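Notes from the 1:1 (GR / supervisor)

We went over the backlog. Supervisor wanted to see one worked example end to end before approving the batch request, so GR pasted a single chain during the call. The sequence is below; no edits were made to it. Supervisor asked that the structure be written out right there so they could see what the output format looks like.
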Amino acid sequence: MGIKFSKQGQGKVENLSLQHHLMNYLSKKFYIRNLVSKQRRRMLVAGYDLDMSYITDHILAMSFPAERMRAMYRNPLWQVKSVLDMRHQGHYKAGKGRTGLMVCAYLVYCGMSVEDALHLYAQRRTTNNEGVSIPSQRRYVGYWAKCLSFPKGVYNGSPEVKLPIPCRRELQRIRLYDTVNTESIFFVVSELQEVPSQLYRPSMERTRSCCRQFKSGYESSNSPRYFLSFVEGENEENKSEVEPHFIVQMDTECSALYHKTCLDYNFEKPLPLTGDVRIIFYAKMFGGRLFYACFNSAFIKNSLIQLRLQDLDKVGKKGRSICGPSFCLELVFGPANAKHSFSTSSEDECPRYDSS
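Structure output shown during the call:
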């Protein structure tokens, strides 16, 4: 039995070694990796063709390394280790999207503006200058910038980080303005749940339902007349000011509302949400995803979120087919940490605290 076992073990080692050499050969001869990396820039280093790029001299972005058969089309772990040991011994903090979000957040922390950080990453990491292309990821880079307070002057040290205090908002209504080729759209609302003594926060479904066509003459008792959406800007003197972003008239008594098809869902009981939230929209109750959006409740201003088609994530052919030229997703919330009534005040944003 002992002799037979040892022969089997030796055979396994030989097979692994053969597999290793085979994958090395295939990865050099074929263009599988180039097809997988798409528009991401690749780098030839130490004889390896790897999906990685230097964003700065000290920031290296790459797709997640793989082992075994997946290494045929992704960065092989042993090749990545070899390069990092050669150039950055003991350093590795994979990709384009999530990697880009972290890289851009670090660049913003180092003093870059959000747009400059996103532009630099796109230029250095991709061949088509798209970089961090998912709108929600770009949105969160903006969230991070709002948490930073830089000291006045040049080279006066690291910025002060003031994270928002967890803030509960109550979702009152979901409306899709200017939809075509559909009479109903299903949605699922979920939020990240905090787990004691763990950094990982799993997603938990809060509710699911369906937006249906807005009927003429219908008005919910708790519906607001209309809302305007604003964003903060900076003038030439670097003083903060509030400027109109874009407006969608949501007056339920205005005939203009009926010029476009609106799909609407009013919550009979407002849905309390805290922290990171994701809303996914489907053509059917199960399957047929159209698009989705992610946001954090602490950064909601004016009790309203309005998102155009280009502000939504993973919009495919099916998703575009139901959106008219004036399409807009509208999410209406109650005031911060409150249980009743609406507020259109721009002062209902959640407070912040010093993370230090």
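Supervisor's comment: Confidence is low (pLDDT under 50) at residues 1-8, 224-236, 238-255, 339-347.
Batch request approved.
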